[in-house]
Amino acid sequence: MINAVERIKTLELDVKSDGRISEVFSVMEKHMDARFDQFDNRFDHLESRLDRMNYQFIQLQAKLTIILDAITGISDLTEE
Question: Which whole-number Å values give the CA distances from 30 to 25, 26, 39, 71, in the listed order?
């Protein structure tokens, strides 16, 4: 019985705001926040690269349209 009381007292101390269990959760939360920040930074970087690639693709399409028009002379035809 005395052993159980001591265990309960130890558990109560561990759970308190400055106890070991609370400290572990605090460390885990900081670690998870840091990891989420890293993921956010990676996604932001990838999103900016995707935007750049999309811009380059649009430019390429415009150039190909001009080249195709020059080769085929489609713009010289009248629409009826």
Answer: 9, 6, 14, 61
Rg (alpha carbons) of the chain, rounded to whole number: 32
Rounded to two decimals, the pTM is 0.54
Which residues, including other chains, have CB under 8 Å from residue 64's CB and lie 6 or more apart?
none
Which amino acid would we find at residue 15? V
> Which is it for the CA torsion 53, 55, 56, 58, positive or negative?
positive
Q: Model confidence over 15-62: pLDDT tens digits?
A: 676 777 777 888 899 999 999 999 999 999 999 999 999 999 999 999
Q: Which two tokens stand for residue 2?
A: 């005395």
In angstroms, the CA 2 to CA 7 distance is 9
* 59: amino acid identity, one letter: Q
